[in-house]
Design a protein that fits this description.
- The chain is α+β, with helices and mostly antiparallel strands and 388 residues long.
- The protein contains 14 helices and nine strands.
- The strands form three sheets. The protein has a five-stranded mixed β-sheet, sandwiched between helices. A two-stranded antiparallel sheet has the order 5-6.
- A hairpin with a 2-residue loop joins strand 5 and strand 6.
- The chain is globular.
Length: 388
Amino acid sequence: MTQVQPSRQTAPLEWFDELRESRGVVWDESTSTWYVTRYDDVYELLRDPRLGAQVETYCPPGLTEAQRRTYWRVTEFVDLWPVFSDPPRHTGMRRLLLPLFTPAVVQQVVTAMAESIAATSPGVPAGRLFGAVVRPALAAGLCRLLDEPADALAELADCATRILALGPIETYDPQVGLRAEKALDELTALVARRCEAPRGTLATALSRALSEGTLNLLDATAVYAQLVSGALEPAAAAVARLLEAVTGSEWATADLKAEVDEAADEALRLATPFHLATRRALTDVPLHGHTVAAGSRVVLVLAAANRDPRRFADPLTFRTDRIGARHVAFGRGRHACLGAALTRNVMREMALELAARGVLEGLPPLSAVWNVDFGGRFVHDMVVEQSA
């Protein structure tokens, strides 16, 4: 049995890469977890019916009784998110969310973004492009999606961000847990008010489900939490990676209009905002000479799979000419991200709108300031490279 290395705390992406190249599949005694890191294995296991998404939560050692209560309360709430649910609950929640992702709604989101860019982009300096134009445009699109005013969305997003900061069990911090618990209380109160006087597709659907008894208030809060945390920050990270390529030297041809779809997918592969897809073995699963016992926690490392040189030549290089190898940033199968098409459309239209308005012309190279932890990679801001 092999123990994981401490470097995972300070350099998780490098630790994932090392794990993939040295072993591929490893059992970690300290967290009672199997880690799977190679593309072919991750790709197949994402759709394997022998794995479920509803995981038996493990409590980190060394916590006081009060800290344990906080940990269990917040993690049990996160377990209610649609992405961590199995059928039939998962099927019902996806069905409830489908009206948010119709072509008509996607077009409304794109239109809101374009209007925001038109209002904020004139004369913006390069160093403020991300904070003054890109982020507000993404927020405007999410406001339209959820039918929320900007200040209300900011409240929801703040709560969801504090809950998401809880991170995976491998890096649990009791102080972060307390902040997440407070955010959970605040978010539950916000969602209750929305469901009492619903407006928009989401609040109306959740209010109806509450009235019918098919969901409770904590379920409705989980839906809001996943939508807000899973829409804004991952899209921001992917757009930031795309802007790094567009303004820098790594994308030699930079034919944005002709290659925008390929560029968006490559940015998603390299960003992989959520590093992990956590599963539970529903039965014994043989895997490369190991037996993953029924009930075991299995972590499919999406970030490692998307950087696997066996599947992606020059995996850390931005290339729009990749053929055949699809990234797994959105997962796949029944737990694939419901907003994948929306995110791709958002990235595509963001890039084309910025280009059409001349915002990208003559820009110096921009570099993302990343917040990277064990569970994910998100962008704080973008700055002009010092060498530019």
